[in-house]
From TrEMBL:
Name the UniProt record assigns to this protein: Exoribonuclease phosphorolytic domain-containing protein
GO molecular-function terms, A-Z: mRNA 3'-UTR AU-rich region binding
Keyword Nucleus carried by entry: yes
A GO CC term attached to the entry: nuclear exosome (RNase complex)
Subcellular location per the Swiss-Prot or TrEMBL entry: Cytoplasm; Nucleus, Nucleolus
Family annotation (SUPFAM superfamilies): Ribonuclease PH domain 2-like (SSF55666), Ribosomal protein S5 domain 2-like (SSF54211)
Organism: Brassica carinata
Amino acid sequence: MISKVDIYCLNADGALYDAAVAAFSNLQIPVVALNDNGRIVSISGEEEKNASITMKEAVNKEKRKLTHKNIPFSLTCKLHKKYILADPTAEEESIMDTLVTVVLDSSDQIVAFNKSGGNALAGSSAINQGESFHHFVELARKRGKELKQILADMDID
């Protein structure tokens, strides 16, 4: 099943891509129905009755959590001269050269890799030439391991 999702950010302080991955990972599908106009509308617990629009039967009977075979984990880093900064704030993002985001699934497979701005990674002065791609993936794996442990401790699927 393919889903299209629009994510609207209400407040951003950096690492927006990471926040979008986390939001999608925790997505819950609300109870919805079709109205007489053929539009999908959400049904709240205290459904407001509108005389001009009558609801048809609910498409799904209860709120459902989106299920994933593998939960994605992402890590965004900024490069600036010889420094690598993980999870930068918006202010830190604005003064740095290169943004790198790595998304891994729960089995540590690369789902996405995005780099914007700055020089090519192989020539980065932040780390030795030729090691940069693998370095970012290893940082993301380390972060994913930490997040998996936090989720396990919280008993969250």
